[in-house]
């Protein structure tokens, strides 16, 4: 059931915006710009003290936003983002304690992996959807192409170092659902409130297609 929910969410767009907020004033207008431009699924990372409140505000005020929490590290994080209305949780890696917490929660969980052994540990837990992180530093699309053989049925959201130029190569892989990144919401544009400029970048993301095989 959780796998089906992850699949349905990440099928909404080719890019998952990864967002970190310095000001709560930016949360709702940024989310509105991204959703209106065709990127409805958003990852708000728990990298600041205001992140959970940002999730709560976006969930409550932005129609059409499908909000998840990133940088989830503990059971307390899972509980907090679920209470704020998050629809899924993503971590940069996973520990046995975090896997246990995710199993006890009804929140779909996308754990981060960087090695085949980490992936196998997640598969042992009954999972089949993962975040590859930090994707570009781990060998690029060639890594997931190699993993497709021994790990059929497993699919990924690669994140880390991906941009508009490199995204199509990742999206061409059969085991990639979507890619995560923040290039459509540059910090300078967010700080300036350049929602129209961000929307233009987001529309380009929504139009991304895999490289032809």
Notes on the structure:
The protein is of the alpha/beta class. It has a single domain, classed as TIM Barrel. Helix content is 41%, strand content 15%. The protein has helices spanning 2-10, 27-36, 51-61, 75-84, 96-104, 116-124, 141-147, 167-171, 187-192, 195-206; strands spanning 15-19, 41-45, 66-70, 88-90, 109-110, 112-113, 129-132, 155-158, 179-181. The strands form two sheets. It has a six-stranded parallel beta sheet with strand order 5-4-3-2-1-9, with helices on both faces. Strands 6-7-8 form a three-stranded parallel beta sheet. Helix 4 links the parallel strand 3 (66-70) and strand 4. Helix 2 (27-36) packs across helix 3 (51-61) and helix 2 (27-36) packs parallel to helix 10. It is globular and about 45 Å long. The mean pLDDT is 97.
SSE blueprint and pairings:
Layout: H1 2-10, E1 15-19, H2 27-36, E2 41-45, H3 51-61, E3 66-70, H4 75-84, E4 88-90, H5 96-104, E5 109-110, E6 112-113, H6 116-124, E7 129-132, H7 141-147, E8 155-158, H8 167-171, E9 179-181, H9 187-192, H10 195-206
Parallel strand pairs: 1-2, 1-9, 2-3, 3-4, 4-5, 6-7, 7-8
Any idea what the radius of gyration is? Answer: 16 Å
Principal-axis shape? globular
- What strand order characterises the main sheet? 5-4-3-2-1-9
CA(first)-CA(last) distance: 32 Å
Give the rounded overall mean pLDDT: 97
Concise account of the structure shown:
With 213 residues, the chain is α/β, with parallel strands linked by helices. It contains ten helices and nine strands.
